[in-house]
Amino acid sequence: MSALKIFNPTGWLGGQEANPPLLQETTAAINQGAKAILIDFTHVTFVDSMGVGILVRILKRAEKDGCHLYLCAMNSSARMIMDMIGVDQVFDIHPDRESVDRAVAERFS
Q1: In terms of CB atoms within 10 Å, which of 42, 61, 95, 96 comes out highest?
Q2: What CATH number does residue 38 fall under?
Q3: What is the predicted pLDDT for the residue at 109?
Q4: pTM over 0.90
Q5: What letters, b where the CB count within 10 A reaches 16 and e where it falls short, cover 53-63?
Q6: Is the pLDDT of residue 83 over 70?
Q7: What pLDDT sits at residue 80?
Q8: Is 92 in contact with 70 (CB distance < 8 Å)?
C-alpha cells in the first residue's frame, strides 16, 4: 500500500447520516494500515456542521492509529464553516493536490 490513500467525495459533505460512506471508507483504509489519508475537496460543493463533525471523527481515528490526515482544495464556503466552528487550525489543509504530494514526500522520505 502506498503511503497516501486518496478520497474524492462529491457534492454535499454532511447531512444526517450517522455513519456516512466517507467515514466508513477512511476507517477501512486506516484499519488496512494507511499511513496518510488525503480528502480532496475538489468536487465537494458544500460542507455543513455535520460534515465538519465527520472530518473530526476521521481525524481522531487517524491520529489514534498513527495515520496523518490531509485535506486539500477546499472551496471558500467549506473553509468558512471550518473557521466558524473553530477547527480549521487542527487540520492539515493544503490549497491543492501538488502541495499535499510535497508534504507527503517530505514526511515519508
Answers
A1: 61
A2: 3.30.750.24
A3: 81
A4: yes
A5: ebbebbbebbe
A6: yes
A7: 92
A8: yes
Name the residue range of residue 21's domain. 4-107
Q: Are strands 4-7 and 43-47 parallel, antiparallel or unpaired?
A: unpaired
Q: Is the pLDDT of residue 47 over 70?
A: yes
Cα 87 from Cα 25, distance rounded (Å): 22
99 C-beta neighbours (distance < 10 Å), count: 14
Count of domains forming the chain: 1
User: Does residue 30 contact residue 61 with C-beta atoms inside 8 Å?
Assistant: yes
What per-residue string of b and e applies to 30-42 under the rule 16 or more CB within 10 Å gives b? Answer: beeebbbbbbbbe
In the predicted structure, residue 30 carries a pLDDT above the cut 60:
yes
Phi, psi at 7, each rounded to 5°: -125, 135
Sole residue written with cell 475537496: 41
- Amino acid 1: pLDDT: 46
